[in-house]
Design a protein that fits this description.
17 helices, four-stranded antiparallel beta sheet, 419 residues, hpI Integrase, Chain A, alpha+beta, DNA polymerase, domain 1, three-stranded antiparallel beta sheet, single chain, Double Stranded RNA Binding Domain
């Protein structure tokens, strides 16, 4: 091909590689012409050379021809050729320079900024708004767990700094400290993949922090929620039915449904199908982040029919358009039977009753509690929610709750028709 000129570059229409023969110092410079995605032609500069490191031919992009002119392209090709002559591979040299620039830029990027970017990029994938709030509490504000390292370059965060954050809370609050460690590890992993830092993750547990901090299980034994023994539930429920308040109806409904406090007080009328006698709790309000259908017993339906329809919440609070306080049921429980017992404990009462006084399969009871199951035989039930079978269970539970108080020794097992 004849010597290229700025004018001839614009006139070349044939696709392929066109060699520039106009500058000996820039030998290996080509103009690549290819069809453009939106129609027309795309032109870019390529420098072809044999790597002095591997001995293999390589093609190095120098930029689009509409941005990089012929003279500049020749200059870039000459510079690359000089590196080859000196025994360097220009592509690898460019990658090294790019990495160095990223590292230099990362030195100005703080850990706190990385955490904020991580939360923003993952927020859409978190179904529960509380999840995002919990993440923000770890990294943002005056009481943030990571406040000691938030203003430091993320590239500088090492094991010593991670331990500086975790050690003050590890023994005092092992559960929350463990969650914070996991979040720090995720942010640092994101920063590494984003090439803002290099090396191993200093917040990883296995084979690293596990050698420097005691396992949570060795520090803190989780105490189960104190539960009313199931044999005493009928007597408690009789007393509860005699109380006339929204809190009393909410607590009774919670016990009959075997649900959690937040699931009950967050219930809205749109979730209730009175005709089918089903309460559908959306995934965003469930601990397991899976939709949960609760079959309603006759007594549960009776409770709902007796409630005032004031706003969207089934159990309204004292303020307009606000649900009942999450402490209202607990305060009522304390007033009835003293401190120590919890509303959540009634789920244990229900589970013990299922085990000791019925023949309902274990997996049906677990589904009623919206527990995730791992056993293969139980997982078969999890593909559906066994609503009809659970309806029989919840009806039997409601019937038991309405019986006269019985002594443990005289309780007769309920045979619910399940095998």
């Amino acid at each position: 091909m004849a010597k290229m000129s700025a004018v001839s570059v614009g006139k070349i229409k044939e696709t392929g590689y066109h060699r520039d023969n106009g500058d000996g110092g820039a030998r290996g410079l080509y103009l690549q012409v290819s069809p453009a995605t939106g129609g027309g032609l795309s032109k870019s500069w390529i420098y072809r050379y044999v790597s002095p490191v591997t001995g293999k031919p390589r093609w190095m992009g120098l930029g689009p021809a509409d941005v990089i002119g012929l003279a500049k392209a020749r200059e870039l090709a000459r510079t690359a050729r000089e590196k080859v002559v000196l025994g360097d591979d220009p592509i690898e040299d460019r990658r090294t320079q790019q990495a160095a620039r990223r590292i230099a830029s990362a030195r100005a990027l703080t850990f706190g900024k990385c955490a904020a970017d991580y939360i923003e990029q993952h927020r859409a994938g978190w179904k529960n708004p509380k999840h995002a709030a919990q993440w923000k509490s770890t990294f943002e504000g005056d009481n943030a767990t990571t406040r000691a390292i938030n203003d430091l370059p993320v590239a500088a965060v090492d094991t010593a700094l991670v331990l500086k954050v975790l050690r003050p809370i590890w023994l005092k609050k092992p559960e929350s400290a463990g969650r914070d460690r996991g979040r720090i590890e995720r942010v640092l992993a994101w920063a590494t993949v984003s090439e803002f830092r290099q090396g191993e993750n200093p917040a990883r547990w296995r084979g690293h922090l596990s050698e420097m901090l005691p396992a949570k299980s060795k520090i803190h034994k989780v105490k189960p929620h104190k539960a009313v023994p199931y044999v005493e539930v009928p007597g408690f429920m009789a007393d509860l039915r005699d109380r006339d308040s929204v809190s009393a109806r909410a607590l009774e409904f919670t016990v009959l449904s075997a649900t959690r406090t937040n699931e009950t007080i967050g219930a809205v009328w749109d979730e209730i199908d009175m005709q089918k006698k089903v309460w559908t709790i959306p995934a965003v309000r469930m601990k397991a982040e899976r939709e949960h259908r609760v079959p309603l017993s006759d007594r549960s339906v009776e409770i709902l029919k007796g409630l005032p329809r004031e706003g969207k919440y089934v159990f309204p609070g004292g303020k307009a358009n606000k649900p009942l306080s999450n402490m209202a049921q607990l305060e009522l429980l304390k007033g009835m039977i003293g401190n120590g017992y919890t509303v959540h404990g009634f789920r244990s009462s229900f589970r013990d009753w299922c085990k000791e006084q019925t023949n309902f399969p274990r997996e049906i009871a677990e589904l009623a509690l919206a527990h995730m199951v791992a056993d293969k035989s139980e997982a078969a039930y999890s593909r559906g929610d066994a609503l009809d079978k659970r309806r029989l269970l919840m009806a039997a539970w409601a019937k038991y709750c309405a019986t006269k108080p019985l002594k443990a020794a005289s309780v007769t097992p309920i045979r619910g028709g399940m095998s």
